[in-house]
Design brief:
By secondary structure, the chain is of the alpha/beta class. Helix content is about 35%, strand content about 10%. Strand 2, helix 5 and strand 3 form a beta-alpha-beta unit.
Length: about 425
């Protein structure tokens, strides 16, 4: 006898019910998939098959491609962004930023994230751009390597009601920090000072949050690969130090895999170079880190699925999540994903000269997004997996979507819901 396939209606009801009963993730507010349904207009358009009507919820801005470090596995070297204009200085001017900000308005974008590129605070005007973004009503997040922060910048950041600031530490000791960031193969007194400065800025950031009674989420990031694999057992020590010296002002630590997105000509590798390590890391983190840090005030976010996924052979799929979040380079060029920011031939157009609505409604945009494929464990992978699952069931009618939202309970919203 053949198994009876469930009807499309039953499958739709089961899937959508699952959204409301499983709104939790080991990776918390990093998981874009749990936020999709809370953006009703976007999600409804996706459900009824109007994919070209899906618009960005969040936009990443690269105020600088210049960097104070030389990461061996830098995404923006892999994607050819830093080679695009040779030796020219790659810093976003105030003129370009103001035009970009003006050309983003009235498009229902909820949040802006200031990130690399290079290091955002290599641009001395980045703090002013953040202020202008907040003044314009956007929620704002910041990713930084932490070295260029000063006490003044830190106090400004925690006074601006930002949604989050995360410093990427990516190391438990001086030695691995120099390797991961490419400035030293061995620890010396000068490299030790670099690591100490960033750790100190992290603790100052946590304390400043408490002093200013800020609601800003403060995070520290750890990307694990071959250069810091041997230090996994030391992670509890640095986490405990940060927790203690920040007086509990650091909210979370996120542990993620180091990913090689591209090899030659923007092609993705079938196998990651750290496959052998990724198979071991989940158990090591659970036994050596999570088990030894339960008493800390900070939350530990560890997505073992990412490591498991990257230990397998990569298979390309349609990238249907890309329209939910786009990226703007230092020169105002708009790109379809953060990982492709600055890649030759992939710009949607100049956002310092054209309103985003014109770029979004162009035939070129539809063509580019239509042929965009996934890359290994990219930022919106969980959202993409979820949307592809929805798409396999078939399109929904407007009535089905209305019933879904009538029946479901979308309160309370997940943290950082406007960052996907």
């Amino acid at each position: 006898m053949h198994a009876i396939k469930p009807s499309q209606t039953i499958m739709k009801n089961c899937l959508l019910q699952d959204i409301f009963t499983n709104q939790s993730s080991k990776f918390g507010f990093y998981d874009a998939a749990i936020k999709a349904a809370y953006h009703r207009k976007n999600f409804s358009n996706f459900l009824i098959g109007k994919y070209d009507k899906v618009k960005p919820i969040s936009v990443e801005i690269v105020p600088s491609l210049e960097c104070n470090f030389m990461c061996p596995n830098c995404t923006y070297v892999q994607n050819l962004s830093k080679a695009r204009l040779g030796g020219l200085k790659k810093i976003m001017s105030m003129e370009v930023f103001e035009k970009v900000l003006n050309n983003l308005n009235n498009f229902n974008i909820k949040s802006l994230v200031f990130t690399g590129g290079g290091e955002p605070f290599m641009n001395e005007k980045t703090i002013e751009y953040i202020k202008l973004a907040r003044k314009s009503g956007y929620e704002v997040g910041v990713y930084t390597n932490g070295f260029k922060l000063t006490e003044d910048i830190i106090n400004q950041l925690t006074s601006l009601d930002l949604t989050f600031v995360r410093i990427s530490l990516n190391a438990a000791t001086y030695n691995s920090h120099g390797k991961v960031y490419g400035y030293a193969k061995k620890a010396t007194s000068s490299t030790n000072a670099i690591f100490d400065r960033i750790v100190n800025n992290l603790t100052l950031l946590g304390r400043s949050k408490l002093t200013n009674k800020s609601k800003t989420t403060i995070g520290v990031g750890f990307i694990l690969g071959r250069d810091n694999f041997d230090e996994i057992k030391l992670l509890p020590d640095i986490l405990r130090k940060l927790d203690r010296e920040s007086h509990g002002g650091i909210d979370y630590a996120a542990i993620r895999p180091e990913v090689q997105y591209f090899i030659k000509a923007l092609n993705s590798p079938k196998w990651q170079p750290n496959t052998d390590l990724f198979k071991q890391i989940p158990d090591l983190i659970k036994n050596e880190v999570l088990a030894r840090t339960k008493d800390l005030s900070m939350q530990l976010l560890f997505n073992d699925r990412g490591f498991f996924d990257l230990s397998k052979q990569f298979v390309k799929e349609d990238n249907v999540a890309a329209p939910w979040s786009v990226s703007i380079d230092y020169d105002g060029q708009l790109y379809p994903t953060s990982e492709h920011n600055g890649s030759p031939g992939l710009s949607l157009g100049d956002l310092s000269a054209t309103h985003i609505s014109q770029l979004w409604e162009s035939e070129y945009k539809t063509e580019l997004f239509g042929k965009l494929k996934t890359i290994p464990y990219f930022k919106l992978k969980t959202l993409n997996d979820f949307l592809l699952k929805v798409k396999t069931i078939g399109t929904f009618s407007k009535e089905e979507v209305a019933r879904f939202y009538l029946k479901g309970d979308l309160s309370p919203q997940p943290p950082h819901v406007n960052f996907v």
